[in-house]
Every structure is written in C-alpha cells, then in structure tokens.
Amino acid sequence: MKTATIKEILLNDKTVNDITLMGWVKTRRDLKSQSFAELNDGSTRQNLQIVIDNSDPKFQSVLAKIVNGASVKVIGDLVQSPAKGQKYEVKVKEILVLGECDQEKYPIQKKKTSDEFLRTVAHLRPRTNKYASMLRIRSELSFAIHKYFRDNGFFYVHTPIITSSDCEGAGQMFSVSAFDIGNIKNLPIDKDGNVDFSKDLFGRRTYLTVSGQLEGETLALGLGKIYTFGPTFRAENSNTYRHAAEFWMVEPEMAFYDIYDDMDLAEDFVKNITKHVMDNCSLDIELFAKFVEPNLINNLKNVIETKYERLTYTDAVKILEKENERFENKVSWGTDLASEHERFLVEHYFKKPVIMYNKPKNVAAFYMKLNEDGKTVRGMDLLVPRIGELVGGSEREERLDVLIEKMKEFNMNIDSYWWYLDLRRFGTVPHSGFGLGFERMMMLVTGIGNIRDVCAYPRVPGYAEF
Ligand code: 4AD
Ligand code: MG
User: Fold this and answer.
1) Hey, what domains does the chain have and what are their CATH numbers?
2) In this structure, are residues 43 and 59 in contact, taking their beta carbons and an 8 Å threshold?
3) Is pLDDT above 90 for 451?
4) Strands 225-233 and 246-255, how do they pair?
5) Average pLDDT of the residues of the chain
6) What tens digit of pLDDT does each residue of 362-395 get?
7) Which atom in ligand 1 lies closest to the alpha carbon of residue 441?
8) Which of 92, 233, 260, 445 has the fewest C-beta atoms lying within 10 Å of its C-beta?
9) Does residue 370 sit in helix, strand or coil?
10) Of 33, 71, 40, 38, which Cα lies nearest the Cα of 55?
11) Mean of pLDDT values over 169-179
12) 3 state DSSP class of 315
C-alpha cells in the first residue's frame, strides 16, 4: 500500500493495485450501479476519478457525504479508465470521509464565482482550480528566479526588513515600533511634544523597508553580483490593479555594470523566467489561457522571443506628446509618466516590451547616476503589456561629491547615510541594479488582471483581513 499524490500517480503512468489516495471531492455523479467522483489533492491541476460500486451496502452510508469540498481517503486499484476523458481511474475498495462539507454553507460552489467574492474567502480560494494554479505558478516562478541567478553567478543575500533609511526617498514607509501604540498615554514624549523614539527598542525611528537596494549595494561591492528576493512594504494609498502595500521584490545588484549591462540583464532575466514557467507549468498556464486571458500564450511568446524596444525618455516623450488628446494626464518633457502612457507605448506603439532610460532627474530617485547633460539620470524602466512598469532600475551614482550634492537637493539627512557614502569613499566602482515586482511578474505570466488575485493574502488600502 502506497500513499502518493495525484501528480506522482499520473507521472508514474502505470496501473497499480491497492493505492491510497487522499484529496478533496470536486464533483460527484451517479449512474445506476456506479458513482463517480473527481478528486483533487492540490499536487496538480488534474483530478483523478474514483469509481464507487454504489450497489455495495458498505458504501451506502458514506455516499451521501461524497460531495463538493469534502475530504476523503480512498484505498483502491488504479486501473485504465474505459471511458473517455481520463486515462486512469481508481476502483474504490475502501473510502473514508476525513472531513464532511456542508453544501448549504460551503462558499466555494462549482458555478463560476467572481474574483471579488473569492477575495472575501481568501482562506478557501486555494481549493478553486484558478487559485491553486496561480499558487503553483507562484511557487515555480520563485524557483525560476533563484535558478536564474544561481546559474549566472549571483549570490542570494538577505537585506533587513526593519530599516532606518528611506531608500526611495518617497516617504511611503510604515513605522515599526515596540511602543504600545494603541495606547497614546503610554508613549514617551520629548520636550518638544513629539514621541521620543530614543526610548524605543532600537533607540531611533524605524520602518518597514521599501527596497533592499541600499543594503544590497553594500553587499554587491564586496561580492560582485548579488540579489535579494523578499517582502517589501509601501504605505502609498494607491488603490489600483497593480499596487499592493505588501509585495515581493527581486533586486539584483552588480558591481562593474553600467546602465546598458543592467538593461541587458533585465531583458534576459524576464525572458528566462517567463520561459521557465511556460515550460514547467504548462497545465496551469493553459487554464489561464482558456478562462482568463485568451491572448496569453501569444503575449508570453512575445515577451520571450522579441527584442525589447529601447528608447530614451526624451524620445518616448516625443512620441507621447503627439497623442496627448487621448491621455488623461498630458505629457511634456519632465512629466513622470503614468500607466496610461507606459501602456500606450507598449500595447499600441511598439507592440512589445519597452525599456525606457535616461529619465529627468526631477522624477528619479536620488541614487541614480547623473548624465553629462546634467538634466537626466541613468535610470531605466522595463514596461510590459497590460501592466506597464515591471522593472525599475539604474546605474548608481558612484561619485561621492555628485551624490552628496544630489542628497542635499533632495533634502536628505546626509549624516544618517554615512555607511552608504562610505561605499563611495573606499574603492568606489560603477555599479547598477534593478527591482522587479514579483506580483506584477505573476500578473504578466498568468494574465490575471488584479494584483489582489496573485497574492494568497493581499494587503491593499482598506484591507488586511486574514
Ligand atoms: O521602481 P521601484 O520603486 O524601484 C525600487 O524600489 C528600486 N530601489 C529597485 C532597485 O533598483 N533595486 O520598484 C521596483 C518595482 C517596480 O517596477 C514594480 O514592479 C514593483 O517594484 N512595485 C510594486 N509592485 C506592487 N505594488 C507596489 N506598490 C509596487 N511598487 C513598486
Ligand atoms: Mg519605479
């Protein structure tokens, strides 16, 4: 007797006597002398059909409990299925209901339910075909990321989640405190009437990280090529299909890379991990191509096979300015481009992914390297269909004096970045990196239209249930 997953049973591809199988019932139908149920155990999108001789008195009491959502343990023989639709089925010898499921109350019904409704029962979503497929792809995509970097000589490093510096300088940080902040009366107050964080656990104000980049740079300037892959937090009140307050970001950082090397890496990386998922998750991808995004396979081939368009921000603005009447936000040189502009370039103009680089310094982060023109910086964004910005990166400002000037312009507290500036004081080198939003990558490979549906438990404005 052997317990195996449905995936293992189907891969084994041989009839076996006396197998043990456990899973959840998806459907049941009854014929005169036989009842058929589809079981799924999460290991694969494929169900395994079990066949119960319903004339046998020993199955009488149990049959009524073999309903959608119930969990069962089955012992039986794996035989060739005489019917069309599946190669194998299990002739049941014994069946035990592990957990009953009340059909009146079970929220996951067979009929199509909306994404909005399923978000309210996110703890049961993994039982649906769609979310199980999404979660299997998420797992494989994570693996693909680690594999890509390992195969290319990168080291996986872990940067802190609790930090005292604001990498993006955008002030979108969640505070972290050991104070009992639920009770205002307990907070220590300094002489100016502010909360006295010197009495807090770290002796200073701390936050959840918005990016591991700054610490990542310090590690790359010792190890050469590193990457981080971890949770990232942004307290921005953006209620859109592509923003979450908690998301995962992949951040490679490379010593001796310039902006062009950085763009080459981003393009190769996105192509490679997309191909990995297409090759290794074909059944799950097929579900999304069938039920979610009819153009998915073509879109993914486009991502893998085309050479991405590369153009400067200035050239992009020249194209966009001519189209201003179609945009809600009008474009001129210096505008921070919005998703409508990004999507126009990718979906209508070039019809393929686009890498836009050399943006104006006023819409860029402080650490991006200033170009000779004094107006633009060596930042780049990789834009993809339906999503817009998937990757944001840059060559870093490695010149101490220029960086300090820049930080002054940004009104930053230069003293608290002493360690970041030390990189430029001691053996500074050109270096570059980027951040890829993992959930946005999930949206790209699945065709799912809302970031809330590519996370098991989305954290978005107004919502942190579970
Ligand atoms: O462009 P961003 O803000 O870049 C950085 O944080 C750099 N420090 C990265 C680096 O150079 N190491 O963010 C990078 C990517 C974006 O392109 C986007 O895909 C994703 O992170 N992202 C978000 N994804 C979901 N929800 C949000 N609120 C996101 N904000 C950024
Ligand atoms: Mg960005």
Assistant:
1) 6-99 (2.40.50.140), 127-173+210-453 (3.30.930.10)
2) no
3) yes
4) antiparallel
5) 96
6) 999 999 999 999 999 999 999 999 999 999 999 9
7) 19
8) 260
9) strand
10) 33
11) 89
12) helix
Considering only CA atoms, which residue is closest to atom 24 of ligand 1? 437
102 C-alpha to center of ligand 1: Å? 43
pLDDT-wise least confident of 80-84, 285-289, 451-455: 80-84
Atom 28 of ligand 1, residue of closest alpha carbon: 243
Q: Considering only CA atoms, which residue is closest to atom 9 of ligand 1?
A: 435
Ligand having the closest approach to the CA of 249? 1
Q: Which of 134, 101, 102, 142 is nearest to 115 (CA)?
A: 134
Closest CA to ligand 1's atom 27: 243
Residues 146-153: what's their mean pLDDT? 98
CB contact burial 222-240 (16+ within 10 A = b; e otherwise): eebbbbbbbebbbebeeee
pLDDT tens digits, one per residue of 397-429: 999 999 999 999 999 999 999 999 999 999 999
Residues with CB under 6 Å of ligand 1 are 167-168, 211, 213, 234, 243-244, 247, 249, 251, 389-394, 433-435, 437, 439-440
Residue from 209, 440, 448 whose mutation best tests the ligand 1 pocket (most atoms within 8 A of CB): 440
Candidates 247, 269, 394, 455: which one to mutate for ligand 1, based on the most atoms within 8 Å of Cβ?
Answer: 247
